[in-house]
Amino acid sequence: MRFLLITFFLLFSVLTVTTFKTQASAAYSPQVHRLHIGDIFSFQDGEAWQTIKILDIQTEAQTQTTVHVLIYQLSESKPTLHALRTQPILTYHTPVSQTLFSSKWFYIGNTTPQKSELKSYIKYLKNNDFKKYAEVTNQKVDDLIFRANTLYTKGYALSQAAQYQQAIAAYEQAISVFPLYYEAIDKIGFAYMDMGEFEKAIKYFDRSLEVYPKGTTALYYKGMSYINLEDLENALATFKQGMEKFPEQKETFEEMYQSLSKLTL
């Protein structure tokens, strides 16, 4: 089995802070404020107030700072920390650029993000920054990978025994532990192919390619699934895509493409 954990670990970013000036108002004095986790800011948009809370701050390659925020629903009056305790939440997590913050924003105060406020952000980390996900959930990456591998091995054994539904369940468990485990996603596609459910297989090969766009195996067997569905048009398009996207594997895709082309003459 091949793992590209190094690639995923390189996605890990360190926390940083950014400085900007907040606007003067009757309620909030002007100041130079450094962004911190838990900071709450608001600005007036027409007659309504838009308020956000910082969940995390990340800098990628020391050049681009991304601020992860929670967004409250609009309020008619200028917000306070006390009022925000009962203010409904519009979006629990969205990443924004640090450039969003300008002189239009007022600093309200700081409150530590609660577990309920961090659920969506943690889910985002699990699918995009696995190392940091393990860190913020007090888990070890090696332990998580070991657990995922154990479930993968169980799924493989079940597949070999033609117990495909049980195998799929094991592979899904492996993916739930490690969402970037594209080999396990591929194996679910193969299991559905073995069961003759080629449309479902294609969905999983597409899912695998979303996680790992360089997956030649997923793309090739996506094309093979289209062949089994007698959908030659999409099969041709898939193998042509492989020829163009993976020049180092061009011959493999080209062979199938040419064979199918003869059938359409």
TrEMBL record:
Source organism, top-level taxon: Bacteria
Signal keyword on record: yes
Signal peptide: 1-26
Entry-linked Gene3D superfamilies: Tetratricopeptide repeat domain
TPR repeat segments: 148-181, 182-215, 216-249
Pfam families: TPR_1, TPR_6, TPR_8
Membrane-spanning segments: none
Keyword terms, alphabetized: Repeat, Signal, TPR repeat
The protein's name in its UniProt record: Uncharacterized protein
Species assigned in the record: Pseudoalteromonas luteoviolacea DSM 6061
The organism's taxonomic lineage, starting at the top: Bacteria, Pseudomonadati, Pseudomonadota, Gammaproteobacteria, Alteromonadales
